[in-house]
Design brief:
It comes from Methylobacterium gossipiicola. Helices cover 51% and strands 8% of the residues. The chain is mainly alpha-helical. The chain has two domains: 41 residues; 62 residues, Winged helix-like DNA-binding domain superfamily/Winged helix DNA-binding domain (Arc Repressor Mutant, subunit A). Helix 1 crosses helix 3 and helix 5 crosses helix 6.
Length: 129
Amino acid sequence: MGGCYSLDLRERITGFVENGGSRRAAARQFAVSASCAIKLARRRARTGSVAPARQGRPKGSGKLEPVADFLIATVEATPDITMPELAERLTIEHGVTATPAMLSRFLCQRGFSYEKSPDGRRTRARTDP
């Protein structure tokens, strides 16, 4: 994913346009695409700001969010459950399909991590409850 132009550059481009320069001239002056200058000027006119919009999926969305309580309760009840086993239980009990990697990322975001027990088996444990 590409990064955003700095707020300073965005302000200079829109300032150039507001001082009478054309949008395409601003693009040439600041070495950005014409479409960038046009969209920035449009954004300033509509919202009064040139700050970039938030990117990415909003927190609390996604297909696993509705079953978060089930996943956390299952892992806390059976810490040594494997991700493929958890994926299978999720499909059977809730009809939601998820890959083991997706489940692992989901649990890591909620504070779970792998820990090895003295017998060498891996278990999931919450690092900060």
